Amino acid sequence: MQQSVRLKSFELFAQDIDGIDVNLLHALSTSVGWPHRPKDWEMLRRAGKGIVAVDGIGRVFGSAMWFPHGDDFATIGLVITSPRTQAQGNGRWLMERVFAECGGRHLSLNATRAAYALYRSLAFVDEGIVHLHQGKVSAALPSLPRLNGHFEELAPGRLAEIAALDLAAFGVDRLPLLELLAEQASIRVLRRDGVAVGYSMCRAFGQGHVIGPLVASNDDDAIHLAAVHLEAFGGRFMRVDTRSTGAFAAFLRRNGLSVTDTVTTMSKGRRFLNEKPGEPMVFGLAGHALG
Ligand SMILES: CC(C)(COP(=O)(O)OP(=O)(O)OC[C@H]1O[C@@H](n2cnc3c(N)ncnc32)[C@H](O)[C@@H]1OP(=O)(O)O)[C@@H](O)C(=O)NCCC(=O)NCCS
User: Which parts pass through the membrane (predicted)?
Assistant: First the structure.
């Protein structure tokens, strides 16, 4: 009897992600070691659009999503191909489908090491490095800088109060996304003289909680906007994705959130990042896929 058998190769078809059983998407992300829960996939599906690569009997072998903000910009994420099908053209095919769906939009994404060469070959250029800080939060917070302003909790219905601040930091109006995140987030606003100068959201994600978006104009404000959530999470798992490498990042490390990975922020078309010292900027990302 033969000791091996060569199976016939199979064909993959693109399907809208909305029609796919969320447990199949969860199995796909788990196969590449990602922490997304089925609930996280559900939220991402509501936030954006996407396609999956399925075979003739509905098994899922890949995904790619995009999150449009207005008519001329989108972020791309959740680009995954199952390990068994990698390095055979599946990822490139999914990306080309996404380009067709996104029309002429300017694009941005956060590239893992595995995907970097693919995106470079698709004309994405580097803009910055995102550091993934995560771990169990220290039992007691280290001493904080002096608080300049006061905190308020923001109800989801009052997001208009931070819309201008977020636009200044992110560069594109993403209020519909913030509304969606706010459904499951605790939101704090930092005000000085009545004016919102920073905000942060904290929500369940993956194996714990994530702080993001976090928008502030300087490290001290950003530290307070993280601390206001961290103080309730001693001993629990938290994550912050940041491009900051200064005092804010040092504060996260002192709290038990060490850097476990990095990804590269890339863009295609108009430059995406436009940070200026002293002006509002994104200290904590909403999520890798969300920019
Ligand atoms: C990144 C990923 C989606 C690529 O998918 P894929 O199906 O392997 O992609 P393709 O087969 O279309 O390969 C595209 C390019 O990637 C590069 N590449 C893929 N596999 C490679 C390997 N094993 N070694 C070196 N380069 C490789 C090549 O540059 C290839 O270019 P080519 O088309 O000229 O050969 C896949 O590796 C993956 O899911 N990784 C884990 C999750 C992840 O990191 N996703 C990216 C999120 S930003």
Answer: none
Residue 291 C-alpha to ligand 1 middle, in angstroms? 21
Q: What pLDDT sits at residue 243?
A: 98
Q: Is 115 helix (H, G, I), strand (E, B) or coil?
A: helix
C-alpha 279 – ligand 1 centre gap (Å): 37
CB 44 within 8 A of CB 3: no
Same domain, 168 and 283: yes
For residue 113, how far is its CA from the centre of ligand 1 (angstroms)? 9
| Ligand 1 pocket: which of 28, 60, 67, 86 to mutate (most atoms within 8 A of CB) | 86
Q: Please give the Cα distance from 67 to 57 (Å, whole number).
A: 28
Instruction: Point out the domain boundary residue: 104, 121, 156.
Output: 104
- Same structural domain, 56 and 163: no
Structural domain count of the chain: 2
Lowest mean pLDDT of 49-53, 132-136, 287-291, name the range: 287-291
User: Mind listing the pLDDT tens digit for each residue in 177-209?
Assistant: 999 999 999 999 999 999 999 999 999 999 999
